[in-house]
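Entry:
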Amino acid sequence: QVQLVESGGGLVQTGDSLRLSCAASGRTLSNYFIMGWFRQAPGKEREFVGAIFWSGGTIRYADSVKGRFTISNDNTKNTMYLQMNSLKPEDTAVYYCAADRVYSGSYREVRDYDYWGQGTQVTVSS
């Protein structure tokens, strides 16, 4: 089992940048097939932001963040990152990282992931 802890959220203005971190403990992230980022805005369902396939490094993004957000990882620190640039008010949400032990053919759904962090709030003011 792995414990995931997100950090780096905060209050920023439109156009600013933030970098979120997802630190893992308990097991190394390389033991997990896919690591993902999701977000949940007030009154809305949790939605896919992006994911990284740990073996091979393939990365996928939601269309809404493509070109603005970048996922990366540091195996030496057992940490995944989400660099968010050109932030917009609609990016305001609680951001979660998640881990999936086995790839089942899907990676964009909440149900695809086995472990979740507690989330970190990102607020973008206009």
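Residues 33 and 101 are 5 Å apart (CA to CA).
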